[in-house]
Design a protein that fits this description.
Blueprint lengths: L1 H25 L1 H5 L13 H7 L1 E4 L11 E4 L3 E4 L6 E5 L5 H15 L3 E5 L4 H12 L3 E6 L13 H8 L3 H16 L11 H21 L7 H11 L2 E2 L2 E2 H9 L6 H8 L3 H19 L2 H6 L15 E6 L8 H20 L9 E5 L11 H7 L5 E7 L2 H8 L1 H9 L3 E6 L3 H11 L1 E5 L5 E6 L3 H5 L5 E6 L5 E4 L31 H8 L2
Parallel strand pairs: 4-11, 4-12, 5-9, 5-10, 6-9, 10-11
Antiparallel strand pairs: 1-3, 2-3, 7-8, 12-15, 13-14, 15-16
Helix pairs in contact: 6-7, 7-8, 7-14, 8-9, 8-11, 8-12, 9-10, 9-12, 16-17
Amino acid sequence: MLNIIIIALIVSSILILILTFVYINDDSSETAFSTKIKGDGRWSTSREIKKELKKVNIADDHFKYGGIPLKANTKRIWVDNSDSHTLIIGSTGSGKTRRFINPTVNILAKASESMIITDPKRELYEQTGDILREKGYNVIVLNFRDPNLGNAWNPLTVSYELYKSGNIDKSIEFLEDLSINIFYSDYYSNMNPNLFKEKLAADLFCGLCLYLFEDGEKDEINLNSISNMCNEGESDYLNSTYLFLYFKCKGVENPAYSFVSSTLMASEELKYDVIALFKQKIRTFTSRKSLSNMLSYSDFDIRKFGSKKTAVFIIVHDEKTTYHALVSIFVKQCYEVVVDHATYNGGKLDIRLNFLLDEFANMPSIKDFTAMITASRSRRIRFIMIIQSFSQLDMIYKYEPAEIIKGNSSNLIYLLSNENKALDTISSLCGDKTIKDKEGKILEKRKLVTINDLQRMKIGNAIILKHRVYPFVSHFPDQSKYKFYKKPSKKTEFILRKEKGVKLFSLIKYIEDLTK
């Protein structure tokens, strides 16, 4: 009997040791950094982490849940299925694309969620475009690198359709958002010496657009027509200019007049400066034939993004910022359109929309983005923003808006950085551990994770700061290690769009026909 009891005790002890070993090794946070000394701050346990997330099995064809992966192995992924926003900070070579963005695209595809993705290097589209089409996605490509290879998008279409439907106030709101991204060099700065002239140029743009909506044919509604109105308008005619005569014949009661009146009544010197600035700013979008053609009409409907599963790939240079303003314009326009759709759909979208914005801090600031990120969650809209440093974010959005963006990001994911601010911030947010002696007397406090630890993060490891839980460390496999990853036999091909030609509204013809 005694022998049986002894054997039972030995077996029980072995089982306890095995279970303890498995539990500890399942918790990557406990093994990534030394936590032998317990204190106030600590890492989340594996059980605590999984309690906040939803598990999906990679082998499944369809996922019930979708979102950013916060814990993973090659068979299972635990995702944040809530409508929370995510901010990822990682320097070049930290694995942002292969360990987060690409897997997230595949997860969202299996969960049948819509997504708008910035894809600077084209690799996401080339790797997943055909897969998404096979899953029934409406795949749209805005290719600012090679505008002929992709879809067409006219930034004026939404405003024009609202104007023609009688919703002039909403049309003006979209025009003002568009004008800010075209003409303002720094929307959030009060130190911009050209701010007043930029405001006048933006107002002139809005006024010309409203006049064009009233007098132009549908296929003449494009940015090149606006540029042409300004160019032709400077020419002399009947002891005046075409532009002045045009404004005069439209009358001061016209809604557009309030936008152009400041420039119209300005001194000759100021008027010259505003017109020159106007031409210089809009030239970026009208001087290149292929881009002008791409921006002259739309071949998709933004309103369907929240009701039909859609994947939009925005391909834009990462080595220069020439067309980054167009990305900001498109993101803002999509958000406003789908929010309006949600308002008339019980307050929420039928299909959740995810913005995966790589190089977010290299894009021009998006007007009212702090309000967008605050209000979007209740509409089933999520933002996943990827930046290289906090300084980039502060520079684009200034300190207070940048802090609001950080504060509204329920998931803060750190991959790697050499930026002092990022290192200090992450170390501080992880908290302190209290060092005590054997009698329990407090000796000192130390950082749970030091700056040295953060600078030497292993590739694939990430520190995750999630609201309502202690920080934790997760290891994320390379995209090629996941079972859902299939290396395509060939890259997804880009579709050559047939050029339609850009039709222009002629101010000269309009005035001469009017004065005959």
